[in-house]
């Protein structure tokens, strides 16, 4: 309880002024928490403002088409969050008459809502004493108590959740949860934590044992997979190109891209134009060139995309074409958005 009081005292003096902290509207809290999963506040804030302006209520978000939601989300990454957000908005609007569940257990039934998000909404909006455990909380608790259990292990997840639950201030759980998260984000930072001016310094096990840099502990992650993407960018005399929706359950579902030829290794122009996918796309003679002089490596959490953009000047493409003026209206991955900015700037 002493730790909780120290954190809350620190928080009331140092907390960040954020728009979702000025309300207990569960729609806004839910929106902010989904956006801030694996995302820094500075990056997520403009998206929160854009979404609440475009979709003031859960009914507005529910009525939007998925493509519009993904376009507004563009650049925030982890697009399954946006698809789950839209799905849940429709469920809350249509099945629950726009009223969010009011308990932790009920909130967990919503698609895209896990332990952390359910805890945040339940504590902040409904004063239910359930502890949040995110990256910031793991860091504060592992250092303060000197715990070296890997935070990404099943044992660690259970151990830290149980510990966090024993520490929560039951009289103001929402304030406490926000306090410990902000403390981890602003004070007990991953790199260069402010130990020399820390209100918890006298009781911090990691500081006493000179283990701050070694905590928290993470188990080794899975091996990074390399994929080779060859984007084919058709350019016709009629100022048309091809943009198609990415299907399936892989990365970037529902976003748009130029025709993609994925290979098991890096290939050159000769191999590309002799591939079946290329000859199917372009029945007539083409002029082909690479837009970038070097490969673009786009890094995702568990895979690296070694990418090339091939500009193909042609009279005809065996695909439905659109005018270049329409391209920017579609939601695309950041990788393609950056290419478009440079390519269109060069064309103009």
UniProtKB/TrEMBL annotation:
The keyword Iron-sulfur applies. Its EC number is 3.2.2.31. It catalyses: Hydrolyzes free adenine bases from 7,8-dihydro-8-oxoguanine:adenine mismatched double-stranded DNA, leaving an apurinic site. Keywords: 4Fe-4S, DNA damage, DNA repair, Glycosidase, Hydrolase, Iron, Iron-sulfur, Metal-binding. Binds 1 [4Fe-4S] cluster. It is an enzyme of class 3 (hydrolase). Residues 35-186 form the HhH-GPD domain. Its cofactor is [4Fe-4S] cluster. InterPro entries: A/G_AdeGlyc_MutY, DNA_glycosylase, Endonuclease3_FeS-loop_motif, Endouclease-III_FeS-bd_BS, HhH-GPD_domain, HhH_base_excis_C, HhH_motif, MIG/MutY. Gene3D superfamilies: Helix-hairpin-Helix base-excision DNA repair enzymes (C-terminal), Hypothetical protein, domain 2, Nucleoside Triphosphate Pyrophosphohydrolase. PROSITE patterns: ENDONUCLEASE_III_1. Belongs to the Nth/MutY family. PANTHER family: ADENINE DNA GLYCOSYLASE (PTHR42944:SF1). Adenine glycosylase active on G-A mispairs. MutY also corrects error-prone DNA synthesis past GO lesions which are due to the oxidatively damaged form of guanine: 7,8-dihydro-8-oxoguanine (8-oxo-dGTP). This is Adenine DNA glycosylase. The lineage of its organism: Bacteria, Pseudomonadati, Bacteroidota, Flavobacteriia, Flavobacteriales.
């Amino acid at each position: 309880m002493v730790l909780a009081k120290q954190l809350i005292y620190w928080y009331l003096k140092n907390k960040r002024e954020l728009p979702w902290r000025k309300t207990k509207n569960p729609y806004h809290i839910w929106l902010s928490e989904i956006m801030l999963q694996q995302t820094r506040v500075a990056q997520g804030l403009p998206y929160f403002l854009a979404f609440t302006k475009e979709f003031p209520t859960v009914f507005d978000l529910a009525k939007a088409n998925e493509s519009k939601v993904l376009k507004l989300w563009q650049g925030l990454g982890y697009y399954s969050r946006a698809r789950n957000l839209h799905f849940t908005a429709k469920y809350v609007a249509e099945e629950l008459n726009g009223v969010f569940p009011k308990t932790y257990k009920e909130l967990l039934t919503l698609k895209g809502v896990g332990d952390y998000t359910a805890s945040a909404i339940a504590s902040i909006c409904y004063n239910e004493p359930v502890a949040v455990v995110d990256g910031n909380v793991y860091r504060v608790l592992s250092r303060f108590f000197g715990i070296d259990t890997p935070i990404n292990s099943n044992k660690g997840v259970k151990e830290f959740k149980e510990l966090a639950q024993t520490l929560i201030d039951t009289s103001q759980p929402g304030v406490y949860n926000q306090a410990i998260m902000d403390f981890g984000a602003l004070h007990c930072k991953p790199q260069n934590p402010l130990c020399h001016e820390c209100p918890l310094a006298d009781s911090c096990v990691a500081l006493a044992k000179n283990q701050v840099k070694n905590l928290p502990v993470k188990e080794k992650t899975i091996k990074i997979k390399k994929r080779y993407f060859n984007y084919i960018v058709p350019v016709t005399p009629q100022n048309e190109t091809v943009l198609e929706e990415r299907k399936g359950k892989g990365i970037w579902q529902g976003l748009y891209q130029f025709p993609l030829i994925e290979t098991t290794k890096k290939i050159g122009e000769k191999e590309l134009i002799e591939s079946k996918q290329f000859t199917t796309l372009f029945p007539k003679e083409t002029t082909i060139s690479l837009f970038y002089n070097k490969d673009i490596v786009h890094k995702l959490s568990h895979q690296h995309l070694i990418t090339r953009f091939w500009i193909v000047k042609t009279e005809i493409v065996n695909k439905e074409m659109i005018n270049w003026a329409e391209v920017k209206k579609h939601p695309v991955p950041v990788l393609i958005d950056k290419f478009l900015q440079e390519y269109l700037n060069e064309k103009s």
